[in-house]
Amino acid sequence: MRAIVFDFFGTLTDPAAEAGRRESFTATAAALAIPADRFWQAMGASFPDRITGRYGDTRATLRRIATECGADPDEADLDAAVSAQLAGGVRVRPPRAGVLDLLDRLRADGYRLGLISDCSSELCESWPETPYAPRIDAPVFSWQEGCRKPDQRLYAAVSARLGVSAAECWYVGDGGSREHDGARRAGMRPVLVTNTAYPDAAARRSDPDPYTPELTIADLDALAPLIRT
Ligand SMILES: [Mg+2]
């Protein structure tokens, strides 16, 4: 095995941080003068299209969502809304405890590191500024690729960009978006992170994977021992 492909939200990020998403959306809604509940509902309904790039970048997305909600923000309102939305994006992606050191150690051990994330524009636009960027050799984002997990094109893209075969890749994720079934079909070796210490995390998982990998770990600190065996 020469590479490890990670999921992003709830895997590299602190699973507890997802609980802050609604509050961060509330700040964006306020900037657009849209009721918070209406904005939350519109963002949820548009999720499949937003994460595959069909709403465009963050500014275009917020303009369109505002229109769908009956608002008519001017450019200054949009500036404020984009700032609020990107700041909210920072709040939902703090690194899981110890994860940056883990990524450094895995690279020092010679593993190539990849990422597949079902994500909207905010993460792609901010990626270079995140502490993850210098540690991930090949990030693959649904928003950029125009398809979402478990679409096989995402798995093919990450292994190609890592310069390895799918059979040489571990796939490590917390089990949203049917990601492990996709990884298994791609020929990768799936590992489920159960996040046992985060009882609310499972409830927040989008499109849970009905397939459970043979290999499961409670937290990422168990990954290095597992892949060395
Ligand atoms: Mg996840």
TrEMBL record:
Pfam families: Hydrolase (PF00702). The keyword Kinase does not apply. GO terms for molecular function: hydrolase activity. Coiled coil: none annotated. Transmembrane segments: none annotated. The keyword Kinase does not apply. Keywords: Hydrolase. This is Hydrolase of the HAD superfamily.
